[in-house]
Design brief:
Number of strands of chain A: 11
Shape of chain A: globular
Helix content of chain A: under 10%
Number of strands of chain B: 11
Distance between the termini of chain A: 37 Å
Largest interface: A-B, 27 and 27 residues
Oligomer: heterodimer
Largest sheet of chain A: 6 strands, mixed
Distance between the termini of chain B: 33 Å
């Protein structure tokens, strides 16, 4: 079982719709969770992080965490063509372990 | 620009040559990380520094790879006797010293290495 799993996509949504990106992780000791956006040929850009169960909202983005189900998601409201990118989910075990473990990413395409 | 910077941005080298990459973290970030990313994959952790101390190394980091952060500021990653399998994007990230359970990391633009 992979440590961090994401549907590779592509996920295609029309402009203005809600895009829902999902991620599961295998290590129950994981403490914090991150969503990065990566445009083709560019480096990952941090969008949000979450470490408590529930929802965390930032503008058009909402991260949702359910530690019991080992599930984290990212919702993008009012999707724009500029949101078209690969979205990477990453987890961290916390404590003295600082490294991030990434999924392979989900390719999102927002159609005008 | 106060973000993480990396140099060079692109490097083409012949198999067997040595290469060195540099990373300058965000000012006052005491933690610095190196990752490697190949096409279609997420970044994979290579090594981590807190100030000048290298605290963790991945088993991906073979004996041909060495990283330093001599004064706790910039870092270098050297690959000796490069192989075609070393072709990848090498990413550097840094995170601030504040006590946060999240340890968010901010990435530089990366160095794309091509070994021919």
């Amino acid at each position: 079982q992979k440590e961090v799993e994401q549907n590779s996509g592509p996920l295609s949504v029309p402009e203005g719709a809600i895009a829902s990106l999902n991620c599961t992780y295998s290590d129950r000791g994981s403490q914090s969770f991150f969503w990065y956006r990566q445009y083709s040929g560019k480096s990952p850009e941090l969008i949000m992080f979450i470490y408590s169960n529930g929802d965390k909202e930032d503008g058009r983005f909402t991260a949702q965490l359910n530690k019991a189900s080992q599930y984290v998601s990212l919702l993008i409201r009012d999707s724009q063509p500029s949101d078209s990118a690969t979205y990477l989910c990453a987890v961290n075990r916390g404590g003295s372990n600082y490294k991030l473990t990434f999924g392979k990413g989900t390719l999102l395409t927002v159609n005008p | 620009d106060t973000g993480v910077s990396q140099n060079p941005r692109h490097k083409i080298t012949k198999r067997g040559q040595n290469v060195t990459f540099r990373c300058d973290p965000i000012s006052e970030h005491n933690r610095l990380y190196w990752y490697r990313q190949t096409l279609g994959q997420g970044p994979e952790f290579l090594t981590y520094f807190q100030n000048e101390a290298q605290l963790e190394k991945s088993r991906l980091l073979s004996d041909r790879f060495s990283a330093e952060r001599p004064k706790g500021s910039f870092s270098t990653l050297e690959i000796q006797r490069t192989e075609q399998g070393d072709s990848a994007m090498y990413l550097c990230a840094s995170s601030p010293p504040r006590d946060s359970p999240a340890y968010e990391q901010y990435f530089g633009p990366g160095t794309r290495l091509t070994v021919t």
